């Protein structure tokens, strides 16, 4: 199979694409893949590092208010569709897949106009603006939450789950915590604010460090690349005990996750797919800054099943963070119950399901 795939901006759109590529290569080692992203998004760092062929397109998002910038955006969109057409002509894909972000809008739209089989994958319970636009042109749509179904043309939709779920369940324990300077036989909480870090979670965690230092459990605090230097500078005289480690970014999250006992983090859809696939107890702090408050809806789908706790960002302080983390880390039975509830919601074969959707789109042509 020759797969052209595009997803950009944040990890939540990129990691599902990488997981799908991994599953495709496992089934078909001869498969050829071209990833199309932007030079500014996280994908420009993550994708080439994996040895995947990568090309870029320049694009920008719409401003919500009417502005001159929007004319530039439309012009850039049309230009980027032109660039995508060139890439498609040269690569000759059998199928083109979009996993979200503006760049996937241009690539998948161009492919549909060239009568190439197209598929989009939606990770969220509330559909993203790019996927909503593309849904009118594509052949098939993979979704991860039932509540997304009604927001798309019904006959194109298939429940696949998020391919990242399958990728993380296939990783065995590798003493990855040890490599980060932690013990691999101690209960560990991972604190992180999605793929880019979250200022409020970071601030509360910094406040909590004197308490976390004193706990018997370990803390792995991942700040997000752009926040790291400021946080380390701001720590000033606060010493870190050996059971607390701070990192800017975890490159190989699937290797770390099997060794994690509790997560405190955002409720991004791909994080949720990982949490449910592995059955990891979690405290979710939905971002209030995303479209239609979709992270609260993502989080609520777990909370309703006893599969996660929720703290509103407005209620998050150093104190409430420690209280919530203690609540799970000091209660092994409660953790086990939550883990089982989370795992029941997991979709560990999501990448294979999405691959089948790709094949169905190709057959339909
Ligand atoms: C602010 C924002 O717009 N967030 C959106 C973005 O979230 P975001 O990009 O944060 O995505 P998710 O929380 O869904 O996933 C984060 C991904 O990054 C990985 N990771 C994270 C930190 C790290 O150090 N290393 C690492 O590999 C995680 O393992 C996970 O695979 O896309 C999601 C999926 O469309 C949406 O649901 C979120 O609302």
Automatic annotation (TrEMBL):
Sequence positions that bind UDP-N-acetyl-alpha-D-glucosamine: 10-12, 124, 195, 250, 295
Pfam families noted in UniProt: Glyco_tran_28_C (PF04101), Glyco_transf_28 (PF03033)
Reaction catalysed by this enzyme: Mur2Ac(oyl-L-Ala-gamma-D-Glu-L-Lys-D-Ala-D-Ala)-di-trans,octa-cis-undecaprenyl diphosphate + UDP-N-acetyl-alpha-D-glucosamine = beta-D-GlcNAc-(1->4)-Mur2Ac(oyl-L-Ala-gamma-D-Glu-L-Lys-D-Ala-D-Ala)-di-trans,octa-cis-undecaprenyl diphosphate + UDP + H(+)
Keyword set, alphabetical order: Cell cycle, Cell division, Cell membrane, Cell shape, Cell wall biogenesis/degradation, Glycosyltransferase, Membrane, Peptidoglycan synthesis, Transferase
Domain Glycosyltransferase family 28 N-terminal: 4-142
Residues annotated as domain Glycosyl transferase family 28 C-terminal: 188-354
Gene3D superfamilies linked: Glycogen Phosphorylase B
Entry membrane topology: Peripheral membrane protein
E.C. numbers: 2.4.1.227
Pathway: Cell wall biogenesis; peptidoglycan biosynthesis
GO MF terms held by the record: glycosyltransferase activity
Subcellular locations according to the entry: Cell membrane
Membership in a protein family: Belongs to the glycosyltransferase 28 family. MurG subfamily.
Chain's role: Cell wall formation. Catalyzes the transfer of a GlcNAc subunit on undecaprenyl-pyrophosphoryl-MurNAc-pentapeptide (lipid intermediate I) to form undecaprenyl-pyrophosphoryl-MurNAc-(pentapeptide)GlcNAc (lipid intermediate II).
Protein name (record): UDP-N-acetylglucosamine--N-acetylmuramyl-(pentapeptide) pyrophosphoryl-undecaprenol N-acetylglucosamine transferase
Species the sequence originates in: Lactiplantibacillus nangangensis
């Amino acid at each position: 199979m020759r797969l052209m795939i595009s997803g950009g901006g944040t990890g939540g759109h990129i990691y599902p694409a990488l997981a799908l590529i991994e599953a495709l290569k496992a089934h078909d080692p001869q498969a050829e893949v071209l990833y199309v992203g932007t030079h500014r998004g996280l994908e420009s760092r993550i994708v080439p590092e994996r040895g995947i062929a990568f090309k870029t397109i320049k694009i920008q998002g719409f401003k919500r208010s009417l502005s001159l910038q929007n004319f530039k955006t439309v012009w850039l969109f049309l230009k980027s569709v032109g660039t995508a057409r060139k890439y498609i002509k040269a690569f000759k894909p059998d199928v083109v897949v979009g996993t979200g972000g503006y760049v996937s809008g241009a690539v998948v739209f161009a492919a549909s106009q060239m009568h190439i089989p197209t598929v989009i994958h939606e990770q969220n319970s509330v559909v993203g603006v790019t996927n909503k636009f593309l849904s009118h042109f594509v052949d098939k749509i993979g979704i991860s939450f039932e509540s997304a179904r009604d927001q798309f043309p019904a006959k194109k939709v298939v429940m696949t789950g998020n391919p990242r779920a399958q990728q993380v369940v296939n990783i065995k324990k590798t003493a990855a915590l040890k490599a980060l300077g932690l013990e691999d036989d101690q209960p560990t909480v991972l604190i992180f604010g999605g793929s880019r870090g979250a200022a409020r979670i970071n601030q509360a965690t910094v406040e909590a460090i004197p308490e976390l230092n004193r706990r018997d459990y370990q803390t792995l605090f991942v700040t997000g690349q752009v926040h790291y230097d400021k946080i380390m500078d701001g720590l000033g005289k606060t010493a870190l005990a050996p059971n607390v480690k701070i990192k800017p970014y975890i490159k190989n999250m699937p290797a770390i996750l099997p060794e994690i006992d509790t997560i405190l983090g955002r409720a991004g859809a791909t994080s949720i797919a990982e949490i449910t696939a592995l059955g990891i107890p979690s405290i979710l702090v939905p971002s209030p800054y995303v479209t239609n408050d979709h992270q609260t809806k993502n989080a609520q789908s777990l909370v309703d099943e006893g599969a996660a706790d929720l703290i509103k960002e407005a209620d998050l302080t150093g104190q409430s963070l420690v209280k919530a983390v203690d609540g799970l880390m000091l209660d092994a039975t409660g953790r086990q119950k939550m883990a089982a509830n989370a795992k029941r919601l997991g979709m560990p074969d999501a990448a294979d399901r999405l691959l089948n959707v790709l094949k169905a789109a190709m057959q339909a042509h």
